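Researcher: Let's do a round of design. I'm pasting the structure tokens now; please hold your answer until I've finished.
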């Protein structure tokens, strides 16, 4: 199947959508053992539950006065004083930073998201530099998604886990839906480079079965490694191999990404698109070889996991068999097994 063969939902009027809220799957003993092996599971200064001892919240609006899904949380002074030292110690541990003078600028909460995150804003008082990090409810789907991102892409993020708490660094970039508003300002060369990157991003998501990559679930970075270059990075990993429909693992399908799709088709012909896809698979295959031992340990845990509903496993393995014109997915009993088979199908043959 070629890139051109899947019509964007905005044109097809297809109603297939990922669930807005998915079940949270606990970190299993197998996954916990893996995280301990690679120093991801360590005792943390703060627990997710600590941050719920607030007095009240204030709704946060965007620059146009529209309500967002975020709320600013307000604590009693004594509670905030206790939390402050824990938060700063957690931030330093996450980023392996020495002691410094930090101030907490804001603590925000999003009940809408699957992981119900707290977003913590800090300022380094020595140079006034600002940063963010997130404290979330631990979800096995998200942990697997983060690990696959680290091992099968050049995108670097960082996270720590302990018990029911997941700590993540902020992934810098312009949210895809905001970036769309500026696309008309790009030069012809920049549009061409962005189109190439969207094809690469589409392929990366499909190979490792990362779903729900609507424009507000990824960010766009410009000039990150070279002049006029672009990099698209996922920021939401909750729907790592959760959905049953194949097209939900292709960013090109989502109506929110229509402008990216139209740009790609306008700037690139079918032959160029296919070459970009194959080149991206070669890069991912090289990363697989480089990280083979760790990936094998990760997949050994993942294939044993129940991280989706059985009927979705049945649907996805059937659709992938049809897509690849094979029968190899028929034996897969879990989403982890399907991911492993997908990687073998696309990267290791």
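Researcher: That's everything. Go ahead.
Model: Designed sequence:
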């Amino acid at each position: 199947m070629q890139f051109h063969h899947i019509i964007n939902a905005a044109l097809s009027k297809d109603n297939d959508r990922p669930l807005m809220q998915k079940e949270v799957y606990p970190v299993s003993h197998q996954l916990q053992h893996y995280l301990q092996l690679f120093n991801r599971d360590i005792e943390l200064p703060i627990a997710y539950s600590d941050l719920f001892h607030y007095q009240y919240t204030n709704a946060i609006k965007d620059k146009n006065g529209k309500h967002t899904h975020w709320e600013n949380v307000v604590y009693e002074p004594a509670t905030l004083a206790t939390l402050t030292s824990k938060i700063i110690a957690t931030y330093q541990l996450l980023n392996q930073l020495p002691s410094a003078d930090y101030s907490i600028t804001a603590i925000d909460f999003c009940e809408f998201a699957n992981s119900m995150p707290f977003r913590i804003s800090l300022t380094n008082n020595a140079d006034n530099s600002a940063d963010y990090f997130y404290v979330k409810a631990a979800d096995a789907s998200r942990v697997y998604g983060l690990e696959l991102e680290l091992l099968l892409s050049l995108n670097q993020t960082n996270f720590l886990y302990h018990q029911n708490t997941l700590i993540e660094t902020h992934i810098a970039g312009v949210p895809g839906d905001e970036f769309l508003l500026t696309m008309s300002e790009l030069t012809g060369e920049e549009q061409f480079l962005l189109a190439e990157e969207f094809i690469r991003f589409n392929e990366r998501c499909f190979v490792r079965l990362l779903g729900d990559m609507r424009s507000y679930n990824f960010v766009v970075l410009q000039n990150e490694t070279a002049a006029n270059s672009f990099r698209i990075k996922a920021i939401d990993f909750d729907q790592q191999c959760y959905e049953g429909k194949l097209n939900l693992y292709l960013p090109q399908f989502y109506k929110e990404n229509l402008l990216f799709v139209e740009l790609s088709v306008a700037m690139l012909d079918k032959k160029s698109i296919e070459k970009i896809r194959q080149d991206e698979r070669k890069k991912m295959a090289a990363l697989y070889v480089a990280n083979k031992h760790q990936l094998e340990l990760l997949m050994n845990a993942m294939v044993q996991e129940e991280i989706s509903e059985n009927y979705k496993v049945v649907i996805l393995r059937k659709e992938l068999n049809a897509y690849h014109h094979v029968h190899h997915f028929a034996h897969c009993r879990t989403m982890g097994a399907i991911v492993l088979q997908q990687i073998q199908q696309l990267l290791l043959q």
